[in-house]
Write a structure and sequence with these properties.
GO terms for molecular function: oxidoreductase activity, acting on CH-OH group of donors. The protein is an alpha/beta fold. It has 8 helices and 7 strands.
Length: about 280
Amino acid sequence: MTDTVDMIHEDSLPGHESELEPKPHWTPRYPGSGRLQGKVAIVTGADSGIGRATAALFAREGADVAILYLCEHDDAAKTAEIVRDEGGEALTFAGDLGEEGVAEKAVKAVIKKFGRIDILVNNAGEQHPDPEITGITEKQLRRTFQTNIFAMFHMVQAVRPHLERGAAIVNCTSVTMYKGSSELLDYSATKGAITAFTRSLSENLVGEGIRVNAVAPGPIWTPLNPMGGATEEKLEHFGEATPMGRPGQPNEIAPSFLFLACDDASYMSGQVLHPNGGIVVNG
């Protein structure tokens, strides 16, 4: 099922992974062990980057995957092919989850195809670097919050009636929430909201047997940075400031989402994992 998206960005987001060089690493590193056997997962922003790597790993672990994305149909089709090659069933759904009603339509499509939802990964996001706060337009501010945090509320509201005890929600926050970012003021603010949302939603749902956690990646090589307005100079040195001296790859982040989504993390809720190249943060 595909919704038409009429969107004007101030840059080239969301960006095609198929056009990115070098290509991000999405391939799961190890054989599956059935940790998600029989489960149905929704992964937003699954057409590329961390979302694609997470969808691939979930499928290898036995899950069927709904691939939600904005408008990069070729990338989403590739992710669906990856999921099927790993033995899972795939559904693709295009639409702006920040818009009212789109998440509900997506969830209805998932229920129609799979009949259940066990895992929600809220991964979709966007960023627009601005060195001066005065350069952030109201349109950009609304756009960033709509994609990064409004969409999470909409998705959780839509899936909530279908989640049973043992279900898991995993949100994608960011290292920028913890250490700040001088050029990503609106983006960092949304990531702070996501962390607070994760902790509060955990308190709200933990009594129902539904766990809510988050992952806070550091600099990861995905379309988000090169397509999101980063300068050539910044890209040349992307990730070098981490203690490990390099950016991470999507398949180095996906295992954190898997851990929090499966029963390995059955005693964890309201927590954040930090795959960030060795940056020490609080929380």
